Amino acid sequence: EAGVAQSPRYKIIEKRQSVAFWCNPISGHATLYWYQQILGQGPKLLIQFQNNGVVDDSQLPKDRFSAERLKGVDSTLKIQPAKLEDSAVYLCASSFPRVISGRTSTDTQYFGPGTRLTVL
Amino acid sequence: AQSVTQPDIHITVSEGASLELRCNYSYGATPYLFWYVQSPGQGLQLLLKYFSGDTLVQGIKGFEAEFKRSQSSFNLRKPSVHWSDAAEYFCAVRSGNTGKLIFGQGTTLQVKP
Q1: What one-character-per-residue DSSP string does chain A give?
Q2: Does B46 contact A110 at a Cβ distance shorter than 8 Å?
C-alpha cells in the first residue's frame, strides 16, 4: 500500500514570495490533515479536511495561508506572502474514518515525509 | 485545555541499555494516546497507540508503553536500545471528535556505542 506522498521535499524562498505544497493521501482515506512543525517543537495542526470539507482550520493563519481539497483526494497548501517565521516542516497526514461504539471516529493518522520550507 | 508534556528534551543512553521516555497528558475524558518516531528528514512513523483495554500496549521495533490514568502518563519503554533507535520521539493525544493530534515537544534520543 502506497503511503502519503508529498512534494516538493525541500523548498527555499525569500520572504514575501509565495509557495505551494502538494499532498496525496493514502487511497481511501477521507480525512486529510496539514501540520506545521517548527524546529524543536511538535507538529501543530493547521487544517483538517473530511473529504473536501473543512473540519478544523482554527490554527490556520488565514491572512497568508490557504488550503484546498477540491475533489476530496489531493490537497494543496499555499503561503502568500511568506514570512521568516514560516520556516518549518509541513507534514501531511491522512486517516480512514471508522465507527467506534456507534460513533464515527477518525482512525490512526499516517504521515508523509514532509516538505522542509526555508524562508530567507 | 488538552496538552501533552514530554519532560525530557534530550536523552542519551548506551546501546543495549533500557530506555524509558516520559509523557504526561491533560485531557478530560478517556484519552486516545500515541507514540510516533521521527528519524532525520523523515515523516512521523507510528510506534504504538492506546485506545482502550489493556493498559500495556505493544508496538513495533520492540517498544511498549503503559497507560496510567492515576498519573496521567503514557511512558514509552524498550528493554534494550539499538543504535538505529536514535531519533526524535513524540507523544500525542487525540483531541475530541475531530481527531486532530496534540503533540508534545518531543524527546531526542541519542544512543552511545
Answers
A1: ----EEE-SEEEE-TT--EEEEEE--TT--EEEEEEE-TTS--EEEEEEETTEEEE-TTS-TTTEEEE-TTSS-EEEEESS--GGG-EEEEEEEE-EEEETTEEEE---EE---EEEEE-
A2: yes
